[in-house]
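Re: folding output
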Amino acid sequence: MTLIKSISGIRGTIGGRPGDNLTPIDAVKFAAAYGIWLREYSQKEQLKVVIGRDARLSGEMIQNLVVSTLVGLGMDVIDLGLSTTPTVEIAVPLEKADGGIILTASHNPKQWNALKLLNEKGEFLDAKQGQKILEIAEMEDFDFAEVDDLGTITKNDAYIDIHIDEVLNLSLVEADTIRNAKFKVVVDGVNSTGGIAIPKLLEALGVEVIKLYCDPTGYFPHNPEPLKEHLTDICQLVVQEKADFGIVVDPDVDRLAFISDEGEMFGEEYTLVACADYVLGRTKGNTVSNLSSSRALRDVTQKHGGVYEAAAVGEVNVVIKMKENKAIIGGEGNGGIIYPESHYGRDSLVGTALFLMLMAERGGTVTELRASYPSYFMSKKKIELTPDLDVDGILKAMEEKYKHEDISTIDGVKIDFPENWVHLRKSNTEPIIRIYTEAKSQSEADMLAERIISEIKEVAGI
């Protein structure tokens, strides 16, 4: 059982002892810390916070605790109920709220939940702000409101529909163009809120939808991380139904993966590549992804005359770099699309609409589209951490070992070899070291990963 307190929020497994897991006491403590920080940060007398959750089993319990804590601090709450991460992000500025909390553990299994914290723009807090909240939580210096000053709760379940309207109004989304293409698409909503939002969006765009695991019960039918080994059912159903492609999202709908007409993974890394290809073909500009993302985005950006830059892993870091680089699209290689015309957050609804536009304009099959892009292959491995491992020492040793190569240390250690690369970093959300590699064949990427893992184990003495 695990509780991870990081600058990006509080994440843990449900049950167990306070301080070791995400218990009701921990949910209240960190919600209170966020509220106290928000009061200091905003300098306003009366505060408003938007709350939404995915469909996981612990969601309603955690939401009740968080909402009641904020009300106890004298804050007004807009309760979206079942929602998506990007929906909460767009709701914050639309409601003129002072912040937001999304209750979701994203791609983690059902025993996990988390508080993901937003500012008044509906964007994730930066490292300094996140650290301040952790400090407040440790001090437990909470000052709750008296009975006449308690906050209010307003329920609003319209925001998924509002979000869809926002997507339909984007300048590069043309509903008639998509409608005329007469697409047939299978959707795997992993029995969470994507099963509500994605089919609604597709139906609004005139797409024929075949639903798979779209009942938001929170009982995930497979591991909710949208990786190939977890997606056998949709791969088979796309072929069986002769669909144009399949769409897979994670429980909070900020990661987007496609299945080709032949029942093969399009590749999470290529979700951003394809959406950027469409946007850059219509609007000249720059792109950003993180250090663990494919070189294919760089190649496509340069093809369109733009400039590509890499940021440290983490949505907030990508957003900061996008603003610096004036990027018109960006995101992360895990299928996260950030399109600033909509908002600065990963959004599978926006990504779906942009991909449909690309397919409608270009014609042909998803298999043919994938074959048109530079072919890179990734290996994504991890090493479980134990308390006695000196992670910083391990990374420093690997940096020293490869000091004659092209190295970045803005986030762990990334070693760029001429024909491939490896990125080593400690996860912000799980007790692991991630080892990502990319090469021009799967076997080469896998071999590089295994070699690096062996070297890490040798350095660590494990």
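--- second protein (sequence, then structure) ---
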Amino acid sequence: MRTWFITGTSSGFGRQLTEQLLARGDRVAATARRTETLDDLASHYGEQLWRARLDVTDTTALRDVVNRAFTDLGRIDVVVSNAGYGLFGAPEELTDEQIDRQIATNLTASIQLARAATPHLRNQGGGRYIQIASVGGQIAFPAMSLYHATKWGIEGFWESSARELAPFGIGVTIVEPGMSRTNFGAGSAVLAAALPEYADGPSGQLRRVLSGELPPLPTPGDPAKIAAAVIASADQAEAPLRLTLGSDAYELATTALRDRLEALESGRSLAYSTDADDVVHAPTLTTSR
């Protein structure tokens, strides 16, 4: 039996993870802004489920809840940063408050959760950290600039931190799902107030999709299967740094990375030309047929 700490468990991937883990006999420390959404699980699983009310943007409360969970449960094997949402709109359409809250929820809260949990994981001799991110950390669509900024940011944070944590026996996995059948879109997304200048662009088109005027976006991902894959990754001896889930996520990330590499290779000569004159470059390896 393992013990998990998960943020954002009232719906979506957080809820799926909590249900599946409890069903297989694990303990879950579940946090949510509305803990009453977990009443049904609490009545069924009893002490197997530990609950705490938490807005992850409140850093002081976040640290307190993490400390209480480790104190009450003795050991937590896997910490899952799952809380987040989408903010849609062109940058000019967003308010200062919307920008601040998107960064605070999707990026800063994940960093602060890591800062709060790492001393406990290190002192107990290791553990696992799982970041529910998005394929949106590898690609970018218009009208989602702030959302992508947070997802690209958390990718960089964890790619760096994973190397620092490995000597302590702490593994890191960044989960990159594609479009999934959760309430991410119309259910939990925040849409900026419309400016008429953007009505015919991607921002206006996205509004029409979310309002039902245009057909919905394809959502191939099954949340239950995605949650099961995340749980299975924690059972692996070595934590995979990235877990790309969903056919759309795989195809989109593959195309974006290939295009990026092609563009990088096309600029090789220019990149090398800007080195100082006393830099000696190794010969380029070539193959002959």
